[in-house]
């Protein structure tokens, strides 16, 4: 178990099916917080709710990798930067420990809700096969968004995640650490001792958020993809999340170029 993040907290181990039974929250409101790792156990312990943790084979912390696809002019990044109410992100998500890959489209609606749809992805993470591209076009068309003529891989984010749920089903929490963002042969890394905590819910402030506020932590504007692009592209401004990114990310210099890292 991941005692480093959860301290003395002993959440109930849950399978993925059990996690989804309690709180699938595919359509949801998402709010993010940057929390020092050493402050997290107290926040969670004071939550007042019974908590479960995704556990597979005795492990409750898993490696994720997301390859993002965008247009040549970075339409998805620009829409996010401008705060457009209707926008999307497209990515191949790899669950590294189980060697599972899904193509996902995250849609942001006018009411601030996030909807995520996905299909199985076959092949390399930096290539969109015909089935995944058709899924993207159908999804965007059905959502009333324009279908881009060309999309290509533009950034990769790797990180480690622990997933919690309240057994009442009111919230789903993801705890992300060890974030590395890569683009164009360069990378940026999350500072040690920082946790990106995301609260997914269908309603207002949750029990966890009230405890976060009591400890002085407030919601931040932060996107792994957008922060990576803004940090590694000097010509791109990222004022909406600049303060949050500066507080948790630091440049890590050039990286060895691989097919999935050779982005333009």
Describe the 3D structure:
There is one protein chain. The chain has 264 residues and is α+β, with helices and mostly antiparallel strands. It has a single domain (3-254), classed as Hypothetical Protein Pfu-838710-001, CATH 2.40.320.10. It contains eight helices and twelve strands. The chain has helices spanning 3-6, 16-23, 40-45, 75-81, 130-142, 207-214, 224-232, 242-248; strands at residues 12-14, 27-36, 51-54, 62-70, 87-95, 100-108, 114-120, 152-166, 172-183, 186-190, 194-201, 249-254. An eight-stranded antiparallel barrel has the order 2-7-6-5-4-8-9-11, surrounded by five helices. It starts with a helix and ends in a 10-residue tail after the last strand. The model is unreliable at 256-264 (pLDDT under 50).
């Amino acid at each position: 178990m991941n005692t480093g993040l959860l301290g003395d907290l002993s959440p109930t181990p849950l399978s993925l099916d059990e996690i989804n039974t309690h709180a699938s929250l595919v359509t949801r409101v998402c709010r993010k917080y940057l929390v020092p790792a050493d402050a997290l156990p107290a926040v969670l312990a004071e939550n007042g709710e019974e908590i479960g943790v995704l556990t597979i084979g005795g492990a409750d912390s898993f490696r994720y990798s997301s390859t993002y696809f965008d247009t040549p002019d970075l339409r998805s990044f620009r829409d996010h930067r401008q705060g457009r109410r209707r926008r999307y992100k497209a990515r191949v998500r790899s669950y590294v420990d189980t060697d599972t890959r899904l193509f996902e489209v995250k849609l942001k609606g006018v009411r601030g809700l996030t909807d995520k749809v996905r299909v199985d992805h076959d092949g390399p993470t930096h290539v969109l096969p015909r089935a995944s591209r058709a899924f993207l076009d159908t999804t965007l068309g059905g959502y009333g968004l324009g279908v881009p003529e060309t999309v290509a891989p533009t950034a990769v984010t790797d990180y480690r995640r622990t997933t919690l749920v309240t057994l009442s089903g009111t919230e789903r929490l993801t705890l992300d650490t060890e974030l590395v963002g890569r683009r164009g042969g360069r990378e940026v890394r999350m500072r040690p001792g920082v946790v990106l905590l995301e609260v997914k819910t269908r309603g207002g402030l949750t029990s966890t958020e009230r405890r976060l506020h009591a400890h002085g932590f407030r919601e931040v504007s932060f996107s792994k993809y957008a922060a990576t692009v803004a940090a590694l592209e000097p010509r791109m401004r990222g004022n909406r999340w600049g303060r949050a990114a500066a507080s948790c990310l630091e440049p890590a210099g050039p990286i060895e170029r691989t097919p999935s890292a050779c982005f333009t």
